[in-house]
């Protein structure tokens, strides 16, 4: 019996959602799994080719409606993220940044002209987007950003730097958040749709990563980037704009991280059945079984929480602190499962022959981005105590 089926979580999903999940799993297993270990080792990933194929599969912006997007349920999107991350966190990050950050920002806050121009091409994977919020000195505190946009006649001129930006070096469009208030008030933060061929825009790739190596990560440099007034996202003002986008991405991580955990656990169960120690399978020893049982329990508990959050999101009632519960739990437990699986595989667990160490390294980043564990703990605690401890 598979570890994720002990309590029959499949019965909680609609048949259409399961059909889509199975299609994504089959496609990713056939197209991406055979090459992901090499991509991770070389630190390269065929982003443009992958984006077009994932666009053809229908998963880019799949939970959005109109403009060539599928309009799928939140639950279906979560299951797709789970299957993508079961192959590699970098693959899910590509889809998440494209659909839940860049596309969602345009879909939620953009003008009709911006939507019509960008969303259909992004849904097909013909145009790639990135999302510029984090800065070298401002991660968990985006309100302190130093990227500044000043008015110059009818135009806006942007200067600043963004850091740790997925897809940045290969993107056709960047959603860049900048301060427009000289006083630095959070209410002055605005979003800008920046074509990456605009003069003054550059995106040097960040090399020598030890995590998310099958993913493109970049810095964004804005040096006197001049944009027309039509580049502003008209519906977004203040931090509510970018934070709403982050909550979309965090929801995908709730399911996605569990995909990495499932892949580690299934790999380890197979290995333990085949590996003989002192004349019998490793799976037959009590210590091994205790580890496998505990990890299965945490995976199942994580799935139940993810499903509940999916129900709330499809019902239109999902709150930020609830997303924090899911993101904190899924990433933290997935990382512990990956580490636990590595101990069962022993020395074999550190090789590229098995995906466990790769997943563990990736999950170290997933634990941090889209809100660190500490930030999500504070979000949860604020909801239950009524006191904010961020400052």
TrEMBL record:
Domain Acyl-CoA dehydrogenase/oxidase C-terminal: 238-384
Family the entry assigns: Belongs to the acyl-CoA dehydrogenase family.
GO biological process, one term: fatty-acyl-CoA biosynthetic process
Domain Acyl-CoA dehydrogenase/oxidase N-terminal residue range list: 16-126
Keyword DNA damage: no
Record domain Acyl-CoA oxidase/dehydrogenase middle: where: 130-225
Highest taxon of source: Bacteria
Species annotation: Ruicaihuangia caeni
Cofactor: FAD
InterPro entries: Acyl-CoA_Oxase/DH_mid-dom, Acyl-CoA_Oxase/DH_mid-dom_sf, AcylCo_DH-like_C, AcylCo_DH/oxidase_C, AcylCoA_DH/ox_N, AcylCoA_DH/ox_N_sf, AcylCoA_DH/oxidase_NM_dom_sf, Glutaryl-CoA_DH_mitochondrial
PANTHER family (alphabetical): GLUTARYL-COA DEHYDROGENASE, MITOCHONDRIAL
Identification of the protein by name: Acyl-CoA dehydrogenase family protein
Molecular-function annotations in GO: fatty-acyl-CoA binding; flavin adenine dinucleotide binding; glutaryl-CoA dehydrogenase activity
Annotated Pfam families: Acyl-CoA_dh_1, Acyl-CoA_dh_M, Acyl-CoA_dh_N
Keywords in alphabetical order: FAD, Flavoprotein, Oxidoreductase, Transit peptide
Keyword Repeat: no
Gene3D superfamilies, per database record: Acyl-CoA dehydrogenase/oxidase, N-terminal domain (1.10.540.10), Butyryl-CoA Dehydrogenase, subunit A, domain 2 (2.40.110.10), Butyryl-CoA Dehydrogenase, subunit A, domain 3 (1.20.140.10)
